[in-house]
């Protein structure tokens, strides 16, 4: 479990993380979302003791990172997949990490196999594709068999197979009871990966809860209905005090479920050609919520960044 409590970090006049309180639970994949500059990387560095907070605290399985007796066995992280010594082979890189952290060399072979790099373990990292580098980063994070894992943008630059592999791995790690905390800008991917969400803007918490509840907040919810008997359906919906909009010959009804709408239409003699739930997307819910919190709105993006 990761527990941040009123966590605050300032750089000069910028408050990168501003009184942030959230929990990432064990046994769950928690997505960490926010616009550019929202403070995600800073938060991850604070969790890992790579930066010192100006206020508040963050605990990993109940203990501040710097007080962990055996940090690599408690928390593993992949913050930047491309920093590794490019002249070393993947295996040598992991052996060096294991040796400097008191982890038996045999564990290196286990994590190489876990991430599917055994056959290229002797190849120099310089020759690894981005996807192989991401796998090596995950292998390094898994060396100490930690209960808590942090991944900053693990699917960046990966092809669909690579993304699917990471998604399945993160699910499997959470199913083993681990805490998996992961940031990504790719919302459709996040929608398939995370069960819980922490959303921040300008360093502050704007949402914490389940993915399902977050997506349910979006205005784009309802039931889409098409009928050749629009007048009958319109009066039935109005009589039932349903809220609805009409466009392109279809109704989108909110506040009533499909069963109830089907029954109303039947009773009113309106034949239905379509009755389908319209579910919101993570992208829509996210855009609705973060519109206010975007540090640099799209119109000024090019000069600002
Ligand atoms: N070492 C630093 N010195 C000064 N300012 C910093 C430093 N690190 C981060 N910041 C500032 O803190 C704010 C939060 O940055 P951070 O990198 O944590 O955001 P982020 O959500 O990870 O952004 P992105 O999605 O673009 O990676 C930004 O305004 C950034 O410019």
TrEMBL record:
<dbReference type="InterPro" id="IPR017871">
    <property type="entry name" value="ABC_transporter-like_CS"/>
</dbReference>
<keyword id="KW-0813">Transport</keyword>
<keyword id="KW-0067">ATP-binding</keyword>
<keyword id="KW-0547">Nucleotide-binding</keyword>
<protein>
    <submittedName>
        <fullName>ABC-2 type transport system ATP-binding protein</fullName>
    </submittedName>
</protein>
<comment type="similarity">
    <text>Belongs to the ABC transporter superfamily.</text>
</comment>
<dbReference type="GO" id="GO:0016887">
    <property type="term" value="F:ATP hydrolysis activity"/>
</dbReference>
<dbReference type="InterPro" id="IPR027417">
    <property type="entry name" value="P-loop_NTPase"/>
</dbReference>
<dbReference type="InterPro" id="IPR003593">
    <property type="entry name" value="AAA+_ATPase"/>
</dbReference>
<dbReference type="Pfam" id="PF00005">
    <property type="entry name" value="ABC_tran"/>
</dbReference>
<dbReference type="GO" id="GO:0005524">
    <property type="term" value="F:ATP binding"/>
</dbReference>
<dbReference type="InterPro" id="IPR003439">
    <property type="entry name" value="ABC_transporter-like_ATP-bd"/>
</dbReference>
<feature type="domain" description="ABC transporter">
    <location>
        <begin position="2"/>
        <end position="227"/>
    </location>
</feature>
């Amino acid at each position: 479990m990761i527990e941040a409590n009123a966590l605050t970090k300032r750089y000069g006049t910028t408050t990168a993380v501003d009184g942030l309180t959230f929990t990432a639970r064990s046994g769950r994949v928690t997505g960490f979302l926010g616009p550019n500059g929202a403070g995600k990387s800073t938060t991850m560095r604070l969790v890992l003791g790579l930066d010192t907070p100006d206020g508040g605290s963050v605990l990993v399985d109940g203990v501040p990172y710097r007080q962990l007796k055996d940090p690599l066995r408690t928390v593993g992280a992949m913050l930047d997949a491309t920093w590794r010594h490019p002249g070393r082979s993947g295996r040598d890189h992991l052996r060096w990490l294991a040796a400097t952290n008191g982890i038996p060399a045999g564990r290196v072979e286990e994590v190489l196999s876990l991430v599917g790099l055994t056959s290229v373990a002797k190849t120099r990292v310089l020759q690894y594709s981005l996807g192989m580098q991401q796998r090596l980063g995950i292998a390094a994070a898994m060396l100490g068999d930690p209960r808590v894992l942090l991944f900053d943008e693990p699917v960046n630059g990966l092809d669909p197979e690579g993304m699917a592999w990471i998604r399945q791995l993160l699910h499997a790690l959470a199913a083993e009871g681990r805490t998996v905390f992961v940031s990504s800008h790719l919302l459709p991917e996040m929608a398939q990966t995370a069960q819980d969400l922490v959303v921040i803007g300008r360093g502050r918490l704007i949402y914490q809860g389940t993915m399902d509840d977050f997506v349910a907040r979006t205005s784009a919810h309802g039931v889409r209905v098409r009928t050749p008997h629009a007048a009958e359906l319109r009066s039935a919906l109005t009589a039932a005090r349903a809220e609805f909009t009409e466009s392109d010959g279809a109704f989108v009804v909110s506040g009533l479920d499909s069963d109830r709408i089907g029954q109303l239409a039947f009773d009113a003699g309106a034949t239905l050609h379509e009755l389908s739930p319209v579910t919101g997307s993570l992208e829509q819910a996210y855009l609705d919520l973060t519109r206010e919190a975007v540090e640099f709105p799209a119109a000024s993006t090019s000069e600002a960044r």
